[in-house]
Structure formats: structure tokens, C-alpha cells
Design brief:
- By secondary structure, the chain is mainly alpha-helical.
- Helices cover about 85% and strands about 0% of the residues.
- The longest helix is centred in the last third of the chain and has 48 residues, at about 255-300.
Length: about 300
Amino acid sequence: MSVGLLAVVDDILSAALKASAKTAGVVIDDAAVTPQYVQGLAPARELPVVGKIALGSLFNKFVIIIPVALLLSTFAPWVLPWLLVVGGTYLCFEGAEKVAEWFGHHHVSADDDSRDERKLVFGAIRTDLILSTEIMLISLASLDTSLGFWLTLAALALIALGMTALVYGAVALLVKIDDVGLRLMAHPSQGLRRLGDRVVRSMPAVFRTIGIVGTVAMLWVGGHLVIANLAETFWHGPYDLLHVLTHAVEPAGPVVEWLVDTAASAVFGLLLGAVVVLVVTAVRRLRPARGHEGVDSLNSNS
């Protein structure tokens, strides 16, 4: 009995590790995107907010993604590409909106508070839902179909726990490095004080870099999701063009091929996201105008 149980556990661990290896790129993107949501918070609130986002990520994976993915893969596998197109488009929108902010175009509403903790957590969990969906769907596609339902479920659960711990452990470490630097600056050793000073001075540049990497990651992942899943639904054009580009640089090696794939996906994501930003901006501008028209008409009737 114990030998059989150990064999089952070994099968689950092996399947989970093999499937997890194929999600490395998305995991890196997830870790790069999340720190943006805690920048500007009081130091005492950074870890609690990261904890809330991590709990939200677990909710996304265990309550939404895994059950829906298993059900759809069994009864309606054709729906999954459409969901990923929608999710990828949203990531492109978020990335393009951040790029627009770099150039001074930022929508501010009357009730907008960029440091509102509840809104920050909700926004991070919403973005995590899309990134986690890709992680879990890649994992599901990588698992051997001969595992059966329960072993597949166990492997996905293990992947969900491991990836969440990895991503948000890294995020927690990133956001608290400056506190470590401050403690080192108070150390009796001059060498450690200098190290702490360098750490503290470098953190603004580190977070600016993380912000840029996170934005590019959203555009890359979102663009790649849309390109790959449009090909699975009704339009092969972007996928065929991407294939032509990567095939052209194939002799240069896999690294160059990956860079071209990433850059092309990010450019596609930026263009698609810019279109969505324009549409959303137009709708935002129309809504207040319509609201004022309704108020004016009521005033005139009275």
C-alpha cells in the first residue's frame, strides 16, 4: 500500500515538474508585473498587500481556473482559445495604457485613487487571473493524458501551489530589499553600511526597470496569447507572419529566434492594445457627456 502511494506521489511530482518547466517564461512575466502594484505604498503595507494578492492568485487557480479548465477541456475544448484571446487582449490593453502613461497620457477620474489598497489588490488579482490561466493551461496541455482525472487534478494543484509560492515569494523579496538595505546601513561594520547604502540607492532604478519589464511582459504575453489563439480559431494571418519572421532568423540560433518572436509579439500586443485604449478612452469621454445631457434635460423640464 505504501509503495503504491509513493509511486502515485512520484508520478504526480514528475508530471508537475515536467509541465512546470514549460511555463517558465510566463512565471517570470508574472513576477515582473506584480511589484508595480505595491510601489508607493507605506512599507508596513507592502507585505500584507502581497499576501492578499497571493491569496487572490490561489483563489483564481483553485476556484476558477482549474475547475473551468478541466470542465472545458473535457466537454468544450473549442472555448479555451476564445477565452485566451479575450485574456490576451486585456493584457495588451493594460500594457498599452502603461506605455501611454510614459508619454503623459493618463486618464484620471474623479474617484480615482491610484494608491487605494482595495483597487490595487483587485487590479493585481485581475491581471494574475490572465497570467495564471496561461500557466495552468500550458501545464494542463503538457500533462500526459494517460494520468487520468484525479492524478491530473493533483498535478495541477501542485503546480498552482508551487508557482504561487515562487512568484509571490520573489515579489515579497523584491519589495522588501530596501528595508534590508536600511538595516545594513545601521550595522557597525563599515563594509555592510556601504552595501546597505548601495542597495537603498539602487532600488528606485530597480523598480523603474521592473516597471518597464512588467509592461513589456504584458505586451509580449498578451500579444503571443492573441496570435497563437487566433490561429486556433479563425485567423492565421498574424501567426503565419510570426512564423515567417522566426523562420528567417532560425540559422542565427534559438536565442535570436526567441528574441524575434518576443519582439514581434510585443509589437503586435502594443498595436492591439493601443486600439483598445483608443476605444475605451472614447467610451469614457462619451459617458460623462451623456450624463451631463441627462442632467441638463431634467433641469430644463423642471
